[in-house]
Amino acid sequence: MKKILWIIILFSNCVFSQIVIKGKIEDKNGNTISKANVLIYKKATENIITYNISDNNGNYSISFPSSYEEVDIQVRCMGYETITETIENKSINKNFTLIEKVFELKDVVVKSSPIRQKGDTIKYFVNSFSKEQDRSIGDVLKRMPGIEVLSDGKILYQGRPINKYYIEGLDLLEGKYNLANENLPFKEVTQVQILENHQPIKALDSLKFSDQAALNIKLKNAYTFTGQARLGSGFSPLLWDANITPMLFTKKKQMLTTYQANNTGDNVASQLKKHTIEDLLNQFENNSEKTDWLGIQQLATPNFSEKRWLDNNIHLLSGNYLHKLKNDYELRVNLSYLNDYQQQNGFTNTEFITPTNTITILEEKQNHFFFNSLQTNLTLQKNASKNYFKNSLEFQGFWDSQRGTILLNNQQLKQQLSNEFFRISNQLKTIFPLGKQMITLNSYIGLNKTPQTLNVNPGQFENLINNNLPYDEVTQQVDLKTFYTNNSFGFTKLIKRFSVETKIGFQIENQQLNSEILTSENFNLVNEFSNNLDWFRSKFYLNITTQYKKDKWRFELTTPINHHNFQIKDTPLQSSENLNQVTFEPRLSAIYDVNSFWKINSSINFTNQFGTINQIHYAYILQNYRNLQRINAPIPQITNQNFSIGIAYRNPIKTLFWNVMYMNSKSVNNLLYQTQVSTNGASELKAIEQDNNRNNHNISTRASKYYSKIKSNITLNATFNLQSFQQLLNNNLTDIKNQSLVVGNKIDTDITDKMNVEYQANWTFSKNKTQNQDNPTVTQQSHILNLNIYPAKNQYFAVKSEYINNNLFTERTENLFTDLIYRYTISKKKIDLEFQLSNLFNTTNYRTINISDFSYVETNFNLRPRQVLFKIRFTL
Amino acid sequence: MKLKLIFIIMFTFLLNITHSQNNLKDTLKYEIIYNLSYQENKEDTINIKSEEMILKISKNFSYYISSNNLKLRNMLNGLQNSDETTIIKSRPKSKFLFTIIKDYNNDKIIFSDRIGLDIYSFEKQMNKIDWVLQNEEIEILGYKCKKATASFAGRDYIAWYSTEISISDGPYKFQGLPGLIFSIYDTNNHYKFNILSLKKDNTYFDTKDEIFNHIKISEKEYKELKRKYREKPSSMLNSGGMTFPKELLDKGDQRAKEKLKYENNPLELED
């Protein structure tokens, strides 16, 4: 009996176990329906036994083991009525015809985001993201989804740089937000807000779409005081390095101050420089940078890192203060004071090559530079929904001076310079609506004063100045007063795929140059030695920029029309010049993306350049002790024609990158300059009116590939430059050709995860051809070998070496520098300890050789000796 | 002469371009949003991140993308045809930069991912997931959902699907159930997809716009590329013309490596 039961069980399993139901699903017109669900249920229940989905031809096939007598079969498809039937449990062919039915989807939403989202603002609660080892708000930011902090401190939201970093809605630091991000402890912060699609200028909010986000830091307390400090010390001679940066935030006021001082060769003054492109353009356009007319004879500085040779003693104090006023107004004050004392020691050997003879001068130089400057900026800004207004009043004062002693062919020569500079300027930018257009108005007004004096003892140029008699002292005084204004208004129009930007404006520049040469013998020199120049320049401009973008093409055409007017007059010398000219300076650029790998770009432009006041002065100016200059010439005018084309190939799959770029520029200059060197080495610059051409070809290429097997990145690069021009050498018109070839390579290998080696080499070959006569090739080599080791997460060790070899004619110089760095971070307390040993082999002297068209200058520069520095960094 | 040469060069390149992609396009039917919460590091159970993921469904295909990624792409597209005069160099990045197109008719998926500066695409057969149906039921968003379990790429999953919406699809590469997946999570709770919203969508969608600029590669090449990127991220950032300071790149590499080392808990543990 038992046996029979077993047989039945086995039998039923074999025969009845696998039931196959298959068929076709169609609609009532006979079209097959794919992706319909066919489900088999236990009869009259919701329990699914199995299912199948119909294929492209509407066929389905279900096989299932079953001991049930009957099952429910259901056919479901979106947009059709569901069919349910009860069928016998046996293999059959069963077709279905579905009837169309509108399916009403219940639109449902649940909202439960851990990050609170409100309009365009996303809020992150700092507590839920912070960790034990975090210190600054920047550390926590890195962990917030969507936010990224790059190694240089730049913050990205969703991969795009943020456009503003606010603290409590106020923009204290503008682009320098890293100062706050790195130094503000996260414990002071309650919330980080991301303002998506943030348009910083409220007046443009609805007009100009912004796809960038801003970041706002909400503080815990209404009053927050915090900051960071770094202290370092070392020896030979006694070294120090300090950086103390405290800050204060309240609801209405924000303040960040920094004091930095060192004598380790770190030129912290560069922090005061403006970094955004807009600022740099303004500086160039507005002539607002300090200019020096006079100078002491300097040493040519080495062409490697400043930190190896700069002998400084710098103190920098900078304060930034922001105060919120009523009616959306903000007042910001930035104030910086800089004091630096730099020294230079060394000697130069100069050979002036003239067709008749060679003049040699050996100078031993001891120079002292004193920098003393104050910069202030007072900005009032209103950022309201209707209009935007920003006014900056700036004052800069430089009380700089220099002192130099030269041992010239065993005779002592003293130079004393006072090179002061003062500037006061006001810049206004406002945006307001006019009908449907938004008009942008820019206005700049500035006043500069450059009172500078140079004393040289004993007196120079006695043949010119003192009837060939030696004398005690010569004094050069220069005073330049400048008034400059630039005003423009502009608007942008969109026409389909074109965007047209129009800008109309005018510039006026009025300068007065007064200079005088005085001697210890004679106070009343002839007119030849004093300038009383009146310079007036105006420019009216209309600039239209058209952009066109389609698929893979991008074009930009700029068509500026300028009207220039120059009026230059020196009444006592009875010299004057006038110039009236209209220039058209078009520029066209095109970019074409061929495909994912290839890209081509090209541009062509024409420009006109006019001279500035330091290129025209009818009487002599003693620029330095052996350079006496007067330029009695028409206004210099250069017309340029530039062309460039570049091809780039990027194949990330093969990690192969290559590009090549060709540039050509041709220019016509209306003047030729001649330097006349007299027997004592004094030189005089003269300009002669004669059109001359300058032609420059440059081709450069670079290729790099990453080899995964050896974990190495290899880069090769080469640049070839060919330049031809004409020059007057002692009254002879000479054709000059310069050629230079630079080839280099770089290998970067990860030996292990914790060790990295980098080797970089560069060779420069330069050749010069004067009047069909070839000069010997000059070869310069530089090799860099760096070893970086990361023994643990909180440790870093590096050995950095640099080898420089110069081969000039018969001369050969060699230099080797090696530095060691070790850094240890105490994670818990967030204290960094750093040990630096620079210039291990104590290379104290560096020789450079400069060759110009008429001179050969060899400079010996005293470098910073071997030094040891220990640094500590902590939170205030 | 110079110009002639340029034109010749340009033409040669133009000839190289071929447009021959039979792409999927249709009016969309539904848009489903899932909240994905995930644990990046196996041990670090505190650091749970989340992102919204969108599944767009049409008759013959579906498109899966991170919500933030989609927003940024739309912005960039808008930008190309708008007035913005500034050329934006940096491009969008979100935690999930990949997209998945499921081609229902051909049982294929087109997987696209951004590595470094470019997006790469490859095609492959749709994964066959062996679902085991369970009888348990719960209600999500007013829909009756049934339980199913399966293994996928080294993890065991529990899924809740509704036969009321007979779309055999779900988030990521999950599909093949007799209804839409409303919720799916692995048994370790490292990856959890929960439906947030469900709505009709009548916009037209052309996958050409999505994959037009992508670099087509094979799955093998993709894996190789991904491996290289993990090995030395900066090797992908080479733009050809610019050189970056070494220390910056090293720092970036070190940081990225650390980050990648920390992110040791991907959804797919095995191939």
Automatic annotation (TrEMBL), chain A:
Pfam family, one: CarbopepD_reg_2
Organism lineage: Bacteria, Pseudomonadati, Bacteroidota, Flavobacteriia, Flavobacteriales
Protein name: Carboxypeptidase-like protein
Organism: Flavobacterium croceum DSM 17960
Keywords of this entry: Carboxypeptidase, Hydrolase, Protease
Gene3D superfamilies: Carboxypeptidase-like, regulatory domain
MF terms (GO), sorted A to Z: carboxypeptidase activity
Highest rank taxon of the organism: Bacteria
UniProtKB/TrEMBL annotation, chain B:
Biased amino acid composition, Basic and acidic residues: 247-262
Keywords on record: Signal
Signal peptide residues on this chain, from the entry's feature table: 1-20
UniProt entry tagged with the keyword Signal: yes
Keyword 4Fe-4S attached: no
UniProt xrefs under InterPro entries: GLPGLI
One matching Pfam family: PNGase_F-II_N
Top-rank taxon: Bacteria
Segments for region (Disordered): 233-271
NCBIfam families reported in the protein's UniProt record: GLPGLI
Name recorded for this polypeptide: GLPGLI family protein
Organism: Flavobacterium croceum DSM 17960
